[in-house]
Write a structure and sequence with these properties.
The structure is a homodimer of 268-residue chains. Chain A is of the alpha/beta class and 268 residues long. Chain A folds into two domains: 157 residues, SPOUT methyltransferase, trefoil knot domain (Alpha/beta knot, 3-Layer(aba) Sandwich), CATH 3.40.1280.10; 63 residues. Chain A is built from ten helices and eight strands. Chain A has a seven-stranded parallel sheet with strand order 3-2-1-6-4-7-5. In chain A, helix 1 packs parallel to helix 2, helix 1 runs parallel beside helix 7 and helix 8 runs parallel beside helix 10. Chains A and B meet through helix 1, strand 5, helix 7 and strand 8 of A and helix 1, strand 5, helix 7 and strand 8 of B. Strand 8 of chain A pairs antiparallel with strand 5 of chain B, so a sheet runs across the interface.
């Protein structure tokens, strides 16, 4: 039975902006799939590659004919990776023009070899690229991984640190793990930032003080703060909540409206 | 047409060792899929979770009946995640017992909210867990992501830094990105190490010196090092290659055999 077409989806976990390109001053590594079996997996790998700014895909003896419509469907728009993909008869031919080769595997191979994490390797890919060298990453077939002859072609082995009790990793996930670390390397996204809609802005401290004053005067009027010795700590606790929330100017106005509305109702 | 079953494969990118368990002193975050459509995607997400030591899956209004055989097939052995999965009628119910909620999204939502990278968030999940709190991560349906009401239930938004020109991320990849960062947080795999088969060991410097001496005496005999003024630099260059290779004791013996064999041939 041949592979069945699957519907591939685009979860909006990050906003696509086609006016921007992943502009990398260094060349990303080449992804080399050795004897991939399912077109879907090739397509999903291509999609994962483009997610991470990788564009060069090579296939060594894919089981099914290439181009492969299942791969195109599963690539879910990563057409440029599929269209540029090159097919080779052997792993040796596929890597002949590259300088540094990494083999993804983790079964212990009874070989003496460097074993790197993807995070460590990503730094080496960049350093190589900055020196004008090219790197390639070998991935074995879905069920069995790379054979030892292919591993022996590599400078180092890559192992994704994962739950040792369940390491059966989907091919596209393995590709994504490598691409993800590559992309994070030079990514400048702040680890944490407050996103504010463009029609407003963070409130000034004066605006925040105005909100405090408004609430506290109404609470004085309503009797909520009538116990004099408790007033300072109650005021501090109430202020602290709004302080922590990092209000926008718009939100200050909303809350002042809320206070006004509640006060009016009470006064009736 | 219902979803077609797909064959899911186990690329050996990391060696499964069922005698080991992911032993984490802190509780991992809960994964919450809101209105997932394809059973395959739920299964692939479960597989990605268990790869990363995450076990608690919650489903809000899955499109198809649950349990779902396509999910089981795609989970590719991550049965414990599928079997433990809980189904809820609403996102509010699914998060009611949790302390901290993160929403995966990146379309600008016109909401004032903290936006974190998965790497930053992973540290917060751990800190929360160490304080005895629980965290959950919301993922929207495949085609559209989370709606704004669900995002508004979250303390912060998570965005995976990716190629801005192609951010359409497979649901299981999005789950994997979060789980991957969670697992890396406390992982102690050395960034780089030399793996040596257990039947041998790294050579001692004395054994390496013995190899150098053997080769150099044969090269003296053969005349290769006959130019006296060039001898030191030639010796240094030849030694340097073996030095760099970090030979094992077994490999020293192999090379000594190679030298003996080549010398014998020449002497005939």
């Amino acid at each position: 039975m041949g592979p069945s077409p699957i519907t591939v989806e685009g979860a909006s976990v990050a906003g696509t902006d086609n006016t921007r390109q992943a502009d990398r001053s260094v060349a990303p590594p080449v992804i080399i799939l050795v004897e991939p079996q399912l077109g879907e997996n090739i397509g999903m790998a291509a999609r994962a590659m483009l997610n991470c700014g990788l564009r060069d895909l090579r296939l060594v003896r894919p089981r099914d004919a290439w181009p492969n419509r299942h791969a195109v469907a599963a690539a879910s728009g990563a057409d440029e990776v599929i269209e540029r993909a090159l097919v080779f008869e052997s792993t040796s031919e596929a890597i002949a023009d590259l300088n540094h080769i990494y083999a993804t595997t983790a079964r212990s191979r009874d070989m003496t070899t460097d074993v790197l994490t993807p995070r460590e390797a990503a730094g080496r890919w960049r350093a190589a690229s900055q020196a004008g060298d090219t790197s390639g990453i070998l991935f074995g077939k879905e069920a069995k991984g790379l054979n030892n002859d292919d591993v022996a072609l590599a400078d180092a082995v890559l192992t994704v640190p994962l739950n040792p009790a369940f390491t059966s990793l989907n091919l596209a996930q393995a590709v994504f793990a490598m691409g993800y670390e590559w992309f994070q390397l030079d990514d400048e996204t702040p680890a944490s930032m407050l996103a504010v809609p463009k029609e407003t802005r963070p409130a000034s401290k004066g605006e925040l003080q105005g909100l405090f004053d408004h609430l506290e005067s109404e609470l004085d009027a309503s009797g909520f703060l009538r116990v004099v010795e408790k007033r300072p700590i109650m005021v501090r606790n109430i202020r602290n909540i709004w302080q922590r929330a990092r209000l926008t100017e718009q939100e200050i106005r909303t809350w002042r409206g809320v206070i006004t509305s509640l006060s009016r109702k009470r006064q009736k």
